[in-house]
Amino acid sequence: MGQRFFVDRGALVAYLALSLSACRGTPGPVLPVGAAPVSREQVSQWVTATIPAEHRLHRFKWLFQDERSSAGGRGSARIAPPDSMRFDVAGPFGSGAAAAAVVGDEPLWAEPPDAVKKLVPNYPLMWAMFGVARQPGEGDSLKGLSDGATTAWRYANATDTVDYVRTTGRTGRLVTEVRRAGKVVGRAETTLDASGTPIAARLVVPSVPAKLDLTFLSTARADFAPDIWTVRQP
Predict the structure, then answer these.
(1) Phi and psi dihedrals of 81, rounded to 5?
(2) pTM of the model
């Protein structure tokens, strides 16, 4: 049986409120001060709870905005648990079409080659926008805590820190922040329904500054043809 770590509920709720508020403005702390070292087994259980049990097809609207311009359209993401995704996005009338197949934190292929980088600066943030957390890397130090409805955990190594805060209930959230050398790479806040299916997501990249919003139109179980993982031919 995995370990469980508890913290004062009032303190955890206060920290969660702070992190959600910061996601809309100046980045603030995500992981509560009371987080303690946890085992890889415990973290794996927390991550597994975010991974869908079956193949899923998400359809969504997207809107990307920075200080100079904005662009939007529609897209889809096919997720094959535990760690494979094929996504396709395009603007009005098919303009600016982009697609990629991703396994974990690496692309199998992308068209154009910077298709992922244009929208998200980091693969854990991309997965988080679909309500899915990533497993820690080898050698990461791990901290976390849980009060039942809310779980928070952190991976840290010499350069990167990844924080997750997940709440469950009628309306849940997954807040994810990635820092590199102490600076925020991006923060994603994903709103989930009672089953953990994403409803909406926002990614904020403070260095640009820019934000990407996803509004999910549907999520369904789906069977995928093998060729979705291969690069499209001209």
Answers:
(1) -65, 150
(2) 0.85
SS3 199: strand
Contact 121, 186 (CB under 8 A): yes
The first and second tokens of residue 16, run together, are 């969660």
Q: Is the CB of residue 6 less than 8 Å from the CB of residue 147?
A: yes
Tokens of 213: 């919003």
Domains and CATH numbers, the chain: 9-229 (2.50.20)
Q: How remote is the C-alpha of 146 from its chain's centroid?
A: 19
Residue 2, judged by CB atoms within 10 A of its CB (0-12, 13-18, 19+), counts as exposed
- Cβ neighbours, 10 Å, residue 138: 6
| Cβ count within 10 A of residue 77 | 22
pLDDT, tens digit (0-9, with 9 covering 90-100), for 15-74: 343 344 444 444 566 888 789 999 999 999 999 999 999 999 999 999 999 988 899 999
- HSE, CB side, 13 Å, CA atoms: give it for residue 47: 23
Q: Answer positive or negative: Cα dihedral of 137, 173, 145, 23.
A: positive
Q: Single out the residue of 201, 144, 165 nearest to residue 50, CA to CA.
A: 165
- Identify which of 126, 173, 134 has the alpha carbon closest to the alpha carbon of residue 151: 173
Token pair, residue 75, equals 């897209």
Place of tokens 């068209």: 111
Q: Where are the alpha helices (DSSP H) in the chain?
A: 9-22, 40-48, 115-119, 123-128
